[in-house]
């Protein structure tokens, strides 16, 4: 997908007269272990590597039974939550995170231009999850990253009640990835009735005097912007 991503970046840069980077987030130990082949690949596609200080928020002490920090499998938390660092890249007017298995169709630059207005954009997924963490976009604000770190303190997850007992709404119950980034992000940015989430946003300076989230968190039509399966998409939907 990196080739099509570079095409998108060049097109948006030409349209706006700005700089559009492809950024790869990596823990320092992984960045240091890259060999000549990896580095050549990154140079070929002009990819910027950003080393990140954590893969799960430092204050997060909940994880599923049988998993522990440093274990390579058994929980999707690290691979999901590390992408939150995208939200702190304030040198950019807008950022969009995409999983490594995407295929671009049409003009993806529209998403970045919309995010630059100050909105947090996401989409649901193809198997019933209200937020699919394989894609999101925003205008970077370190307070968003800070809120995700604050939310982690003394928080836990239950398959019956979700993160911080905040439920799974609008899903009727547990959904795939709820115990990982998909549930974590959805609770923090969309669950307005979550006391724990509201406290984290407030502590990060993201609530106004009336208690409203200063960032407009909205969702896009996944059939267009995050197509995965035809589930709940129009009949004979053309994903191209």
From TrEMBL:
Entry protein name: Nucleotide-diphospho-sugar transferase domain-containing protein
């Amino acid at each position: 997908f990196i080739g099509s991503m570079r095409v998108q970046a060049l097109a948006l840069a030409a349209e706006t007269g700005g700089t559009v980077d492809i950024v790869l987030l990596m823990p320092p130990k992984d960045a240091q272990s890259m060999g000549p082949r990896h580095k050549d690949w990154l140079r070929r596609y002009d990819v910027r590597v950003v080393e990140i200080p954590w893969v799960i928020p430092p204050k997060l002490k909940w994880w599923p039974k049988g998993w522990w920090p440093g274990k390579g499998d058994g929980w999707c938390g690290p691979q999901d939550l590390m992408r939150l660092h995208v939200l702190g890249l304030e040198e950019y007017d807008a950022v969009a995170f995409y999983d490594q298995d995407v295929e671009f169709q049409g003009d993806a630059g529209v998403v970045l231009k919309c995010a630059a207005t100050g909105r947090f954009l996401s989409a649901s997924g193809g198997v019933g999850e209200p937020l699919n963490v394989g894609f999101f976009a925003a205008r970077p604000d370190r307070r968003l990253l800070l809120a995700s770190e604050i939310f982690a303190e003394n928080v836990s997850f239950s398959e019956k009640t979700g993160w911080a007992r905040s439920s799974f709404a609008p899903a009727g119950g547990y959904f795939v990835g709820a115990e990982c980034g998909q549930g974590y992000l959805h609770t923090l940015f969309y669950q307005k009735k979550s006391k724990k989430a509201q406290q984290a946003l407030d502590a990060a300076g993201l609530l106004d005097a009336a208690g409203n989230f200063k960032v407009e968190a909205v969702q896009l039509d996944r059939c267009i912007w995050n197509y995965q399966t035809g589930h709940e998409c129009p009949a004979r939907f053309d994903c191209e």
